[in-house]
Amino acid sequence: MALIRRLSTNMHLHMIERRWFVFGFAALIVLASLGSFMAKGLNLGVDFRGGILIEVRTEGAANLSDLRSRVGGLGLGEVTLQEFGEPTDVLINIERQPGEEEAQQAAIEKVKSAIGDVVVDYRRVELVGPKVGQELREAGILATVLALLGIAIYVWFRFEWQFAVVALIALMHDVIGTIGFFALTGLEFNLASVAAVLTVAGYSINDTVVIADRVRENLRRFKKMPLAEVLNRSIDETLSRTTITGLTTLLALVALSVFGGEVIRGFSLALVWGVIIGTYSSIGLAVPLLVYVGVRRSAVSEEAAEASS
Description:
Part of the Sec protein translocase complex. Interacts with the SecYEG preprotein conducting channel. SecDF uses the proton motive force (PMF) to complete protein translocation after the ATP-dependent function of SecA. This is Protein-export membrane protein SecF. This protein is α+β, with helices and mostly antiparallel strands. The chain folds into two domains: about 1-45 and about 135-309, Multidrug efflux transporter AcrB transmembrane domain (Multidrug efflux transporter AcrB transmembrane fold); about 50-130, Alpha-Beta Plaits (2-Layer Sandwich). The chain contains eleven helices and six strands. The strands form two sheets. It has a four-stranded antiparallel beta sheet. It has a two-stranded parallel sheet with strand order 1-6. Strand 3 (about 80-85) and strand 4 form a beta hairpin.
């Protein structure tokens, strides 16, 4: 870590002069994410689309072809099977059956009868109705929108509206990029995925606030220094902290992705991606955008005078 600190302290990224490369890369991520979302959509989990989810464990390595033929011939509509972590674990997704809970339970019993001689353990059985799924979708969207607005309002009061604007732009980039990651990879998007999106937003704004605080401090200290130079200096001075925090976070998330099991793999992989784009967006997107929103040195000086009085 000491080596990283020394390297990042001595680095001069000149990020403001290179901002167009970062802007172009950010635009590419947003366009690719929106394109994947529109073309493929999200692989919604049972949480959102409703239906039946059955996780089973077989005696030996699961024969997906055999299981698929057994369940697919029951006339239950769309059925998907996938290996879930270990070769012996299988996740069965069945579309919601017409009728009330009795119809869902009947479908579950049909599946159990069809695969009973190869299954040794039913690890979980979940039922989600369409109304609950719709409510969860609406709640997930509302939670994301309110979180972004709340963060923007906090940054507005903490700094100035200009900082809030660039922070919101960077956060929207991170959220769209993370959702695009799910659309592109086909990972299941469920309630844990919404938590991943909100966690990425929280991580990203933490980096942005740290750098913005240094920008404000340097605007007070170097009143005659050009704005671009102040921004470059602020990025360089906080680079060691950003690098060390990002690397240590990634170490934990990679360990979760590898050893955490299939249940949280989508969550942890999304966080790995989110930490990467959240870190670069704080450095290369949010701060350089301050050049265009007209940060007022007078407002920063007035705030410092009020704080000292």
